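Request:
Um, any thoughts?
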Amino acid sequence: MADPRLVEVLEELVVGAVGMTTVALSEFTPAADLTLPQWRALLVVSRADEGVRVGAIGARIGTTLPSASRLVRRLERRGLVASERDETDRRGTVVRVTPAGHELFTSLVEYRRHLIAELLDGIPGPLPAGLVDDLERVGRAFARYA
């Protein structure tokens, strides 16, 4: 059974990470006007080398297929993703990140990492040896929700 204190601390980290992402979106991308659901969709598409179906995007970000379709269309109008009929199943649509979407995604990740580094620089004293290795293991477990 997981240590309840550890669960509580990790939950606070998750909440803080979502808040930090929201701040990064508002500070870094005001011209793009990217919402948190749009960011999540862009993240899912950016991590799928062969593209991803609209239904899978909806499932990953917790929306219905019609909502995911509308979200993809908005990202497409901004030139961040491109969609085409799935060649293996003509009923489906596959979405891929565009060069502009990749650039925005990469830039935003770097900005968020900058915010994280600033936050860590403000913590007094050295962090425990082995912390990064331990957090890597936890991060791999969390990755199934990314």
